[in-house]
Specification:
Blueprint (H helix, E strand, L loop, with lengths): L1 H6 L6 E6 L4 H17 L4 E6 L4 H6 L7 E6 L2 E7 L4 H9 L3
Parallel strand pairs: 1-2
Antiparallel strand pairs: 1-3, 3-4
């Protein structure tokens, strides 16, 4: 848990993908997040949290649907949405927080 709290204190935006291995839409996010990383490079950090393996973190952030995406910067939650998003949409969104 402490490691996650350290990660989200980053001065660069941290996109967190809360997912589950059994979730179909979560699997659709894998190539989308890879595309976002290609577009954004080192200007963003992408972290994946398995809600089943990391249920303490999932409970703390009240994750009720997967995938749930969140953007953190300097320890603050700036944005949150559940469901699949396209790479271009996510990249544009992340640009607002750089």
């Amino acid at each position: 848990m402490e490691k996650f709290n350290e990660l989200i204190k980053s001065p660069i935006p941290v996109l967190v993908d809360f997912y589950a291995t059994w979730c179909g839409p979560c699997k659709m996010m894998i190539p989308i997040l890879e595309e976002v990383k290609k577009i954004k490079g080192d200007s963003v950090r992408i972290v994946k949290i398995d809600v089943d393996a990391q249920n303490q973190i999932a409970n703390e952030y009240q994750i009720q649907a997967v995938p749930t995406l969140m953007i953190f910067k300097n320890g603050s939650l700036l944005w949150r949405q559940s469901g699949v998003m396209q790479a271009k949409e996510l990249s544009n969104l992340l640009s607002q927080y750089e």
